[in-house]
Design brief:
about 250 residues; six-stranded parallel beta sheet; about 45% helix; alpha/beta; 6 strands; single chain
Length: about 250
């Protein structure tokens, strides 16, 4: 409990495949996945995780069949109930190209953020219509626009630092993930938080998201706790710093 990740990001993969194994339509798996979100959110709050970011709908997901997209949008609306946030004292935030979402979904997202703004046990961030390449592209555009608006004589290259880019990302209100979990057996990042996970610990498991339990979450955290995060330093340097802190 002394080394709980401050920020956990999850790629919730396997809903559709799980449903197919059950002989059900893919939308059945997405509904089951919402139940898992509720359980994992509650458990993260109990453990003391401060930020939980969930990859819910990627920019690439707009290429899915129209009926599946429609069902997913309906699921977003039905799952944004205040109870899960009020019960667990969780603040809700969203990142992504929100303008592409249906208007009623945009309104519900805004209402939920307003209703939970004062909650402070944990912040749950939902990535909707999100891709990291889109996010970084938007950040660069905004930096250029702001620099031009500020002073036409400014040396743009000199203005741009790592901190400049980080400030213009949609995740600028929270720390980078300590731990990234991907369920469903795939071992790729799928265009998710590419800038932010530069030094995150990665954990992949075969369990489909609807079957992901609190015990599975604990395993992922235990794996994280067993690793030494060096951030480019040598083992000796890390050991010396740890001894100094002790």
């Amino acid at each position: 409990m002394t080394r709980i990740p401050r920020h956990i990001a999850i790629i919730m993969d396997g809903n559709g495949r799980w449903a197919v194994q059950q002989g059900k339509p893919r939308n059945y798996g997405h509904q089951a996945g919402v139940d898992t979100v509720r359980r994992i959110t509650s458990e993260c709050t109990k453990l003391g995780v401060k930020y939980l970011t969930l990859y819910t709908f990627s920019t690439e997901n707009w290429n899915r069949p129209a009926d599946e997209i429609s069902a997913l949008m309906g699921l977003v609306l039905s799952s944004l109930e205040d109870e899960i946030f009020i019960k667990n004292n969780v603040r809700f935030q969203v990142i992504g190209d929100i303008k592409r979402l249906p208007e009623e979904v945009q309104e519900k997202l805004q209402t939920t953020m307003e209703h939970t703004a004062q909650n402070d046990a944990m912040t749950m961030v939902v990535a909707l219509s999100y891709s990291s390449r889109w996010e970084i592209t938007e950040a660069v555009r905004n930096i250029i626009k702001e620099t031009k608006d500020k002073d036409t004589s400014t040396d743009l290259a000199a203005e741009i630092t790592e901190n400049t880019i980080s400030r213009h990302l949609t995740t600028n209100f929270m720390p980078d993930p300590d731990l990234l979990i991907r369920t469903g057996g795939e071992t790729r990042i799928s265009n998710f938080l590419l800038w932010q996970i530069a030094y995150s610990e990665l954990y992949f498991c075969d369990t489909y998201w609807p079957d992901f339990t609190e015990a599975d979450l604990h395993k992922a955290i235990e794996s994280y706790q067993g690793r030494q995060r060096r951030f480019g330093k040598t083992e000796k340097q890390v050991e010396e710093e740890n001894n100094k802190d002790a």
